[in-house]
Amino acid sequence: MISNTLSLLLLSTIAKSAPIADVEIPSTSDIHHEHIPSHQEKRGGTCSFPNYEGMVAVQTSGKNAGWAMHDDQECTYGSWCPYACKPGQLMGQWDPSVTTYSYPGSQNGGLYCDSEGNLQTPNSGKSYCYDGTGTFIAKNQVGEDVAFCQTVLPGNEEMLIPTLVGSGSSETLAVPDTSYWAGTASHFYINPPGVSVDDGCKWGSTAEPWGNWAPYVAGANMDDSKNTYVKIGWNPIYLEDTSPFKNTKPSFGVRITCDDPSQCVGLPCSIDPSSQGINEVNSSESSSGAGGADFCVVTAQNGAKANIEVFSV
């Protein structure tokens, strides 16, 4: 059975433009006044990116200046500022007063930039970045690098968090358990081979099939019984009537495999354009989600690991 968290993920609609909105200022009781020991500068009403404990600066040429925010958005006084972490790790800070997935509270991830330009750590008992479950591995079997781009949640859900998987190599993807914010899952866009994280891990346009126009998406989370639910599917935006890519088969495929197949339910689960049409999935248990996009889900039981393999077609 698919967990409620992943079910919500599979049915959610992927927006075509980054939602930039004001964030709520929390009450004093919601914030633990723990300063980050870094050389912050109070300049222009913004908080600088701290590069602290596993944090990864993203899209540094924009106004976001490294924060996991849209490139025209600044980490201003009185706002929440999400950040990316190294591959396999999850952001450990968010607004503790927001416990359900609902807007605008779902934007309140990361550190709080207070009215004096100090960064506050809302969850003082948590690290800035921490290891996920380690049960979902991306394996690259093509001749070029592949950019997996994770959405920012809590945050604006733009695909800003990079995991670059080199040719012939593998990387652990960040998978949350039920202790993560609001019990939500992680969600990834899978870019065509050869697309850099700088190009693929941000909102794109119809000029190229990457970013939010990438052909495939994936998702994962773990429940309290150590079952990891992993999903691969077609990106509904890629399939829209107005998409210039809707009739173009990708040059690569994806599939779920398991180190111990006896511990995995839902195999086979693959997308192979060499033998299937657009929006087709090879699975006896495939389903359709948002925008009619097909997907399949594999359950890796008892803490077993699942792999998402990228291959050429």
TrEMBL record:
InterPro entries: Beta-glucosidase/SUN-like, SUN. Keywords: Signal. Residues 1-17 form the signal peptide. The keyword Signal applies. Belongs to the SUN family. PANTHER family: SECRETED BETA-GLUCOSIDASE ADG3-RELATED. This is Uncharacterized protein. It comes from Maudiozyma saulgeensis.
